Amino acid sequence: MAEKKYAKHLTKNPFWQAPSGANLVSTRHMEKFFGGAFSIDCAFITKPVLMITKPHKHDFDQYIMFFSANQDDVNDFDARIEMTLGDEREKQIITTPTIVYVPAGMAHGPLNFAKINKPVLFVDVGSSNKYYRVWEAEE
Hints:
This protein is mainly β.
């Protein structure tokens, strides 16, 4: 069977496993996929996991989103997520659906899904076609 004209526009099975063990649907491949203009990762978090272990930065803006995985009730959120922001490592406690804006150059992390009583839809969008982290020195 002949290749379809627009088949090249599809990337099938775009899965990636994070070092934390979380299984993500990811566009981190987009650097080589038509030039891409952003990166996005999505995962259903169903159990506690320390996803990011230490502070890091990016030279692009990032949006980190935490939503209820219950499609029938977007406010059905029963989790505790801990995330630090800024060079001062100010700890944020997330217990409701939340979007976190992280401007380019702002330190953030660790990211700890400390308590997950109901699944959380995690979405991470970076405004760059190449996702990477600049880790801060260990203290």
